[in-house]
């Protein structure tokens, strides 16, 4: 799995580069575009999956009931979280104070609640950004809304952008922190508490008031938690994702990476860390599969950060499909470690001759690092209008080496009988 791009060294390099990219997205000293999901966790190549990004509204924050409002600077747009009559993990945003620099997405999203108070409409909020992207995204293909995200694509790249508001909810986080646990360590628990949360524009499916409801999310905290799993735990997560994609093959996101992430987080919290090592990988992989089987059969999986929220409650599971997945998982558990041969990437790697596998792996890793570093370098050297300096000597040196890699790989593939002779086809192949 290390050769396939899931080892600790390559994961760290990816995480560092994406973190640097985020730090370059600054508005008045505040990072406003944050990489989340598998990219922030260092678990996928550039075009292997969507890039999840959180667009953080500047000068806006919502507070849990009981938090001292006087500590919030006067220029901030201030909201109060209202969880009454909302499903667990969701809230409404009551306007407490409209700052002098209110972003149009905020002022355009305000509506009345029927009792003289003003609420933020999650539907109006996401509609505002959908209209904005449609009129300001030249060369980008805007795709259909998916939950709180507005997906975009350009060439082989796919981005899921979620607009969000920062959320200060110490009560929720202290409740999470107070659980008896084996993991994470106390210093990581404190770090997670300090990171706070976000609210994103999506209500509970089926709620009569979902157009004014917001989901409470802990994206940066969950990235921190994933990045503190040990190597065996990370590989369990990766293999579970492969099993879902290659064997179970859900068509409508009935089983998502987020489902599996929560299963792995619960496994890590409830078991001593010394139990997770290379020799126990399959034991805990099958325990993870068993938990997935239970979640599917019972339609119940507690959210790791807010256990009262059931992650399966909004999944529309077909009874026949549900039964088929449960039987399939049961068969995989009975089959034992040989199930990995059913996984495309791992199966091909096991059957491949080691020398070419290692050579292509080195080339792919170097290409990926060069590509990501080039993006960051262009951003660092861009002017105030966003114009990049394509004559920058470092960018030109990176482009030269990328061209050399493509020539070397194409030549070797042709010598080995491959029909691929087009760089445009080779690029997504090598970075996925």
TrEMBL record:
Domain Mab-21-like nucleotidyltransferase: 153-228
Annotated Pfam families: Mab-21, Mab-21_C
Every Mab-21-like HhH/H2TH-like domain range: 237-314
Transmembrane segments: none
InterPro entries tied to this protein: Mab-21-like_nuc_Trfase, Mab-21_HhH/H2TH-like, MAB21L/cGLR
Coiled-coil intervals, chain numbering: none
Family: Belongs to the mab-21 family.
PANTHER family, per the entry: CELL FATE DETERMINING PROTEIN MAB21-RELATED, MAB-21-LIKE HHH_H2TH-LIKE DOMAIN-CONTAINING PROTEIN
Name used for this protein in its record: Mab-21-like HhH/H2TH-like domain-containing protein
Organism: Dreissena polymorpha
